[in-house]
């Protein structure tokens, strides 16, 4: 099947070439026949020029341009072009000589006035060669441009897929980290056979529902993300009991504000994991303000100066996810003072990524 298509394609190209050279022959007959009433002699003279024109043109478009000009081997291109010019000029002279014998029987004055002008004859031949060569060069440039564009598109698609895979990998890291902390808390309650254990299991069920069905979406409603945080805080309050003091304030102006999922919870996790109990209490304050254009998230916990923000998987991953999901659309400030550890995150919602 492919061989048949290839043969048909070659036949089609051959017919196009044949039609083109027939058109050139007619052009020569008209071009060199100006001022002459003998059409047959002009046609025969044009036939003498056709092999030279065809050979010169094909050497240009199939050898000189693709092998030397396009590949930027300019010295060889100029050198071989000069060779081609010299040889073709010689063959034109031979053609004119034979046409003089065949058509005019060595009677120079009987020749068509225009065919006696060697410069005029060469101009006609090289004009055809130049036009065809220019068309070939334009065609090669268009083909190279399309190939470059296709290659760039493939590179961009590959880079996008790599980023998507890395983003999925980061999410996969967050989920086990989150579950590990939560299950540790539940394990402690189970050992004590605490009455709060069933309630904790229900909260964990809500969290797992969010992880399984919401976290893989590109965007979720901000209220769902807040509910997720509140469930997590409830679990931690059961674990810390009276040693935990959490203040959670919200200022949400709209109901349909959306954001990428699982962006805020790692900061909350980090506060519980690395927070420092002072005066018998771990103090954590959380503030969220949101409108149609921005989301501002602020969290502060009691801490010590020497704690590094690189502790824990969550914070490192969240910074990478922010770079992926909100490039040049977020501000993240982390301040570690003597007594407090504070995170301030601002998200610009004016333009959103279509895929997380």
From TrEMBL:
Pfam families: His_kinase
Coiled coil residues, start to end: none
CC terms in the record's Gene Ontology section: membrane
Domain Signal transduction histidine kinase internal region: 166-243
Plastid among keywords: no
Keywords, ordered alphabetically: Membrane, Transmembrane, Transmembrane helix
Protein's recorded name: Signal transduction histidine kinase internal region domain-containing protein
